[in-house]
Amino acid sequence: MEHMLHNFTPGNASSPDLTLCPSNATLFFLPATYMLLFLTALPGNALSLWVFLRCISTISSTHIYLSHLSISNLLLSFTSPFLAAYYVWGSVWNLKSALCQLVLHGITPVLHINIYISLMILTWVALSRFAVLIQHTHASRPSTCTTLLPHAFFIQLSKESFANRVCAVVWLLAVGGIVPVTVYYSVNEAMSSQTDAGHGEVCYNPVVEIGGSLSRMLSVAMITMFFVFYLLVLLSYMTVLRHIRRSRRSTNVSTSHSLLGRVLRNIVLIQIVLSVCLLPYHIFKAIFISLAYHQHQPTPREYDDCHPLSTIVELKNCLLLLAALRGSTDPVMYFILDKTFRHQTIRLLGCNQSNSGGRPVLLSVTGSASQKAGHVGDGHTENLSQDGV
Hints:
Blueprint: H1 24-55, H2 61-89, H3 98-136, H4 144-148, H5 151-157, H6 160-197, H7 206-209, H8 213-250, H9 254-294, H10 300-303, H11 310-324, H12 326-337, H13 339-348, H14 363-366, H15 368-374, H16 381-386
Helix pairs in contact: 1-2, 1-11, 1-12, 1-13, 2-3, 2-6, 2-12, 3-5, 3-6, 3-8, 3-9, 8-9, 9-11, 9-12, 12-13
GO cellular component, one term: membrane
Organism: Mastacembelus armatus
Main location: membrane
């Protein structure tokens, strides 16, 4: 489902007699999975946000980034029931109905805002991890980035005040880039679309799902932005991996080796999340735009009143769902990646009950021995191990 405009070119125009024919994937699979997203993302991200804001005494730049990501995921979870209803009853709702207009111009923007906020925030998490590792670990040869970029740049990346400013800009870019297109569609295009389609046009239709020239231009811009950020993350992680390999050859303290191993695991996990959840949708979206643009003018008799891109539209919506499902898995990612978040979540859930000796069970995980080990090394190991991803 996109912010799609009605001004089609002749090559991909939709005949008013052709409709999208939803299969069981749209009528059952998508609604059920969006409801599962609601049931898992809402409590998971609410708990995550509570831990970030109320349970962690020393907030790092990574915690700030992840707390904003949790807020975005919470907003997405509230919209999931409406998206489920759209796929169940979108073929019945009238295009002018209040529920249809709410989903198209209120709910759908939140979904796309969440995707690109996640992309930008995870990119900055990668850059902040890159900066901290470059500063606080030692390699046999200095990284090229330390000579090309000023030292003040690395200092700023790890500051909490800088993280707050970055998150404000991220929200501004995501909301400012998507909402104006929605407003333009609602004010300038919606009425003409409804007039041309007629009073019987349903909400789930080719005009909404395939789109027109302005929405296609926006989609191309979003796809380009995704690959720029994705390649930036990949480049920063490859640089960190190279630095880690050099550091392992030159570092003599065992706790530093353990730290570098954890960072390596975290880098791989975050890259997998980006590649599995967001990459397929953006690759297929480029293919989808090309197919829609070059689609010849169909006739109702040729396709038995079903639009020829009905199946392609359903595949696009399934991949969009895959991108949205990241909202449910993000709290699990926080738990795996961030040591402080993991310990505070276990404590909050009451898993640190006292054992027979009266000592908290949590001390077996974060006891004095591990705390002392955190101080060994170059003096920055404890800060790195607590500083999240």
